[in-house]
Amino acid sequence: MAFPTETVYGLGADAFNARAVARVFEVKARPSFDPLIVHLAEPGEIGRVAVPDARAETLAARFWPGPLSLVLPRRPVVPDLVTAGLETVAVRVPDHAAARALLRAAETPVAAPSANPFGYVSPTTVEHVIDQLGDRVDLVLDGGPCRVGLESTIVSLLADTPVLLRPGGVSREDLEEVLGQRIASPTRADRPLAPGQLQRHYATRTPLRILPREAGRAPEGRVGLLALRDNPRAAGFAAVEVLSPDGQLGIAASNLFAALRRLDALSLDLLVAEPCREEGVGRAIMDRLRRCAAKPAAPGAELPGPRGRR
Ligand code: TXA
Ligand code: MG
Predict the structure, then answer these.
(1) Which of 9, 70, 122, 275 could form a disulfide with 115 if both were Cys (CB 3.0 to 4.6 A apart)?
(2) Over 80: is that where the pLDDT of 246 sits?
C-alpha cells in the first residue's frame, strides 16, 4: 500500500516478505539493482534488520523519527530483493503519525521506495500517488501534503568517514555537528550503491534547465518558470510557480515536487528553474534540480556493473 511520510509518499511492503517486495518493484517498474529503504515504527527496532554502531545510535537518538536514512550492515533475514543483494541495508523511522501507526499495526519493518514510477518526481500529495499508481496498488493512505517534501538524507556508516549518499531533509551541517566528524561526498566507487544518485532521476517529462541567476525575460517558446521567490522582473513566461514568496528554503523544498508536477502537466517546451543557496536543505533542492535537468544517459550507460549476489 501507499502511505504518507513527512518526506514523500512511500509504496510499502512487508520487508520480510520477498513476494510482497517484488510487487513493489513491479508496480514502480523499478530496476531490481535499486535497493529499498526499510521503515521502522521505533528506533529500538533497528536491530531487527541492521547492525548499528555507536554513530548510528547517536544519529538515531537525535534525528529519529525524521528524514534521515542510515546505511548499515544488514541482518541476514532481510531478503536480497530489499537490499539488491548488498550486504547493507538503509533504515529510517519516519516522522509522520499515520506512517508510524501503520508500521506499528503491521508489526513488521516496511520496505518502501517513493510511490512514483521509477525515475519520475516523488509524490508529495495523495493525488500524486493516485494519478500515477492508483490503479496498481491495493490501498492508498491519505495523510495530506508531506511536510518536508524532499526525500530523506541518506548517510552511509560503513567506513570510518560517513558518506552523504543523498542530501535531503536533514542537512549535512547538522549531521556533522552531531557526529563531531566530517561527512564525505560520495566517490565514484560509492555511486552504484545509490541509484537515487543516477545522473537523471527525479525528472519531469518536460526538459528543465537551471538558470545561473534570477530569471528575467523568458527565452523563446512556451516556457515555464520555477521561481525561488516572488520575482517581479520575470516576464514572458507561459506559467510561473513560486516556491516560497520570500525565498525560505524549507518552504521551497516542501513545494518543489508539486510545483514541478504542475508545470510538467502543461506540456510546455521547456522549464527553467532559478538556483538557490547551497546550504542546509538548499543542497537537496539543487541536487534534485540537477538530476531533473541532466540529459538522459545513453541506454545502459548509468547501470552499475555486475555485482555479486549472495
Ligand atoms: O524519504 C525517503 O527516503 C522516501 C520515503 C518513502 O521514506 N523513500 C525514498 O525511497 O526516497 P527511494 O527508494 O525512492 O530512494 C531510496 C534510495 C535509493 O536511491 C537507493 O539506492 C538508496 O536509497 N538505498 C537504499 N538502500 C541502500 C543501500 N543499502 N546502500 C546504498 N543506498 C541505498
Ligand atoms: Mg524514489
Answers:
(1) 9
(2) yes
All three cell numbers of 27, joined, read 508496480
Strand ordering across the sheet containing 13-14: 13-14, 110-112, 37-39, 88-92, 68-73, 153-156, 163-166
Burial degree of 199 (CB within 10 A; 0-12, 13-18, 19+): middle
Report the Cα 249 to chain-centroid distance in Å. Answer: 17
For 93-249, list the strands marked E by DSSP: 110-112, 153-156, 163-166, 208-210, 223-227, 239-242
**What confidence tens digit (pLDDT) does each residue in 16-56 have?**
999 999 999 999 998 888 999 999 999 999 999 999 999 99
Ligand number nearest CA of 35 is: 1
Contact indicator for 227, 241 with CB cutoff of 8 Å: yes
Partners of 28 in beta bridges: none
Q: Which atom of ligand 1 is nearest to the CA of 89?
A: 29
Helices and strands, number each (H, E), in the chain: 8, 13
Compute the distance from residue 116 Cα to the ligand 2 centre, in Å.
Answer: 7
Query: pTM for the complete prediction?
Result: 0.92
